[in-house]
Write a structure and sequence with these properties.
Keywords: Membrane, Transmembrane, Transmembrane helix. There is one protein chain. With 54 residues, the chain is an all-alpha fold. It has a domain of 31 residues. Helices cover 89% and strands 0% of the residues. It is built from two helices and no strands. The longest helix is centred in the last third of the chain and has 28 residues. It is elongated.
Length: 54
């Protein structure tokens, strides 16, 4: 019998493999969109801080 950690790692690996096979490039697009939104949010927060500072 393999350990619980080993089973969890196997299940996680299989889930990720099936997910990437089904979605293809979709995760990369999601990551790029998320990074872009986070950068825009940081810029907006900095501008709001500048306006509130003034």
């Amino acid at each position: 019998m393999s350990t619980v950690n080993g089973i969890e790692k196997d299940v996680l690996f299989m889930t990720l493999a099936i997910y990437f096979l089904l979605t293809g490039w979709f995760p990369l697009i999601l990551v790029s969109v998320f990074i872009t939104l986070s950068v825009l949010a940081n810029v907006a927060i900095r501008r709001l801080d500048d306006y509130s500072g003034r």
